[in-house]
C-alpha cells in the first residue's frame, strides 16, 4: 500500500542509441527518460539515486550518487520532473531498477521505488 503523503510515481522509457553503440565490442548504449511525479500530499525533494543494472549475462552494476543529472529537484504535490540519462551495457538486452532517496517537507526521508524496466535493441524480443 502506498503512503498518501509520500506517493512518488516513477515512469521510465528507454531507447537504443545505435550511433554510440559498438556491438562488435560488446558495447550497447541506451538512453532512458524518467518522469517523476509527486502524487502525494506534501512536497518532496530527491536527494540520491540508486540503480541496479543487470545485463543478460547476469553481470550486475550498481550505480548510486547525489541527485539526478546534477540536480536535486523538489516536487510540489502534483508536479513532475523529467530527465534523460544513459547507460552502457555489454549485452543487447539488460534491465534497470532501483530507487530514489527522497525527503518530504516534514523532514522524514523515504524511498521512491523504480520498477524494473528493460533496455533492449529493437526487434530482439518478441
Automatic annotation (TrEMBL):
PANTHER family tied to this protein: OS05G0170800 PROTEIN
Protein species of origin: Saccharobesus litoralis
Gene3D superfamilies reported for this sequence: ApaG domain (2.60.40.1470)
ApaG domain boundaries: 2-126
Pfam families: DUF525
Origin: domain of life: Bacteria
Source species taxonomy: Bacteria, Pseudomonadati, Pseudomonadota, Gammaproteobacteria, Alteromonadales
Protein name in the entry: Protein ApaG
Family annotation (NCBIfam families): PRK05461.1 (NF003967)
Amino acid at each position: 500500500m502506498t503512503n498518501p503523503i509520500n506517493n512518488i510515481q516513477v515512469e521510465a522509457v528507454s531507447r537504443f542509441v545505435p550511433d554510440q553503440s559498438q556491438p562488435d565490442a560488446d558495447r550497447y548504449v541506451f538512453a532512458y527518460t524518467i518522469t517523476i511525479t509527486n502524487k502525494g500530499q506534501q512536497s518532496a525533494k530527491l536527494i540520491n539515486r540508486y540503480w541496479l543494472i543487470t545485463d543478460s549475462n547476469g553481470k550486475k552494476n550498481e550505480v548510486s550518487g547525489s541527485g539526478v543529472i546534477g540536480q536535486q529537484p523538489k516536487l510540489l504535490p502534483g508536479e513532475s520532473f523529467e530527465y534523460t540519462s544513459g547507460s552502457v551495457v555489454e549485452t543487447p538486452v539488460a534491465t534497470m531498477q532501483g530507487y530514489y532517496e527522497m525527503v518530504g517537507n516534514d523532514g522524514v526521508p523515504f524511498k521512491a521505488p523504480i520498477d524494473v524496466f528493460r533496455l533492449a535493441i529493437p526487434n530482439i524480443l518478441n
